[in-house]
Amino acid sequence: MIVSKIENILNSAVEKLGIEKHLSVSFSNMPALCDFQCNGCFALAKELGTNPFDLAQKIVENVEEGDLFEFSVAKPAFINIKLTQKAVEEYANACLNDENGGLAKHKNPQNILLDYGGANVAKALHIGHLRPAIIGESLKRLYKLLGDNVISDVHLGDWGLQMGLTALELYEEGVLGKYFKEGEDKPLTLAMLNYAYPQASKRKNEDEAFRKKAEEWTLKIQNKEEPYYSIYKEIRAVSVADIKENYAKLGAQFDLWYGESDASDYTAKAVQIIKDRGLARQSDGATIVDVALPTENQPIPKKSPDEVQRYLNPMPPCIIEKSNGASLYATTDIATILMRNQTYKNLDRIEYVTDARQHMHFTQVFRVCKMAGISPEEQTLLHIGHGTMNGKDGKPFKTRSGDTLKLEDIVELLINKANEKLLSNGGQKNDELALKIGVSAMKFGDLSNTVGKDYLFDIDKFMAFEGKTGPYLQYSVVRINSILSKLGDIKGGQITADKKEIRDIVLAILKLNSAYEICYREKSLNTLCNAVYELASNFSVFYNNHSVLGEKDKNLQAGYASLLKLVRKKMIEVLNVLAIEVPEKM
């Protein structure tokens, strides 16, 4: 809102000079000097063949005078813009009274299907499922806040070899006798599943006969033969109930609980579409699609005839069928895109949040879908690849024994660490509160980093009640709630920005509102995390320098109350996007 006003004023001055160019404005890199700056005079002057500083001065001289912004020129050719007190106050009170808190929503909302989570049925959720759940949930909430229509799908891994392995292991353990009229009827439990798959996974590497039989069972499940398909459905039901419970602890909520099995009916159709388009060819008995661009797979000259041929920008073909006719992971994802486009019309975007190491896989899948017309030309297919969560040694976070951490182990770690923090601060052990604090610490620690990069999972640093952490933000809102509660039913007044601390708060809100669109564009929440932390920090400075409860001037106190309500409104808005819950007390 303010940036648009400034740009309109500047470009009106540019037009007066007979120049048909648009100058843009950004937040200042030196906030002590100004609030916004325009750096466009350098490029514009070069294009016009004139002196940049002289051009900047002429533009400012032609700016129409007003009472909201102050324009000045700084060498070598920066146009600096400072908001007047009136502008700051108008913006603050407009945000306070606006339903969206000054946040601009999209004029043309998009229809988006967001795929994140990726849990595997019959396997325990582990640390690898954390980042897609945390990032995907926040992106979904961000998109919705800005006005998009979003459908979220967990996309379960429920149709592969792990199903046959688990079912066969349970059968040999005497659990599935009821399906074959053998032995006693034993109800399937989560504990049985947690034992069965790891045991079966180990056996398949040591017992070829067991593996072969598990592959046969998997094929029978996929062909929906009885009683194997009924066994599969029971395993899935028990496993999904546990997956839902664990995702709920992270605040991850899905509209759809589809899996690979739901796309199985579309697999043959997708393969046939690809073949009918003449895209498929045979290679060593397998069916493949060449997806490389002309700039890819360029052979690197060999230094000797015996050297292995290497390629620049390698892009292997996408295999859609094995030599035995079985489909693969890529085939399932292609079929899933076909299913989604036939089920949900007019999807503008289909986005996937997974490990960055799957980038080539999704590049292949997306290219096949575009080449075959399975994805409409105007539809965006996007892979949002995230980095790994590493321990202090810089390696992927694991247990002391080197095993992959289960999600339930991480939750227990967070609760224990949060309880330690509560006790050290003079509080009491409270597992419910500790879960909220612990999850907040983990989420903010994750989201404050750029999505595509690896980061260090430092639980002690993340759990601090001061500094740039989730618990600090929670505590800031709790403190505001406490102050407003003590003020009672005081009627809020106009926010007056006659103090630097108040001005800094309002400017932080201005930056925060602009951060949403940056995060939307970059598919990463770190800018929003930085902005809400700056707001919380500026509020803390105000709180330390001015006594809201002890203020004798009732009009001034009413204005302070409105300021606190605005800060709380904007902080809760951000925390909701980050899927961080604010406790009543800390």
Q: Can you characterise this structure?
A:
With 586 residues, this protein is α/β, with parallel strands linked by helices. The chain is built from 20 helices and 15 strands. Among the domains are: 2-83, 2-Layer Sandwich (Gyrase A, domain 2), CATH 3.30.1360.70; 259-386, Rossmann fold, CATH 3.40.50; 407-577, Isoleucyl-tRNA Synthetase, Domain 1 (Orthogonal Bundle), CATH 1.10.730.10. The protein has helices at 2-16, 41-48, 52-61, 85-97, 130-145, 161-172, 177-180, 190-204, 208-222, 228-249, 260-276, 329-343, 359-372, 407-424, 431-447, 459-462, 470-487, 500-522, 526-545, 554-577, and strands spanning 26-27, 36-38, 69-74, 78-83, 111-115, 149-153, 280-283, 286-289, 298-300, 310-312, 318-321, 349-355, 380-386, 389-390, 455-456. It has a four-stranded antiparallel β-sheet with strand order 1-2-4-3. A four-stranded parallel β-sheet has the order 6-5-12-13, sandwiched between helices. A hairpin with a 3-residue loop joins β3 and β4. It is globular. The model has no long low-confidence stretch (mean pLDDT 94).
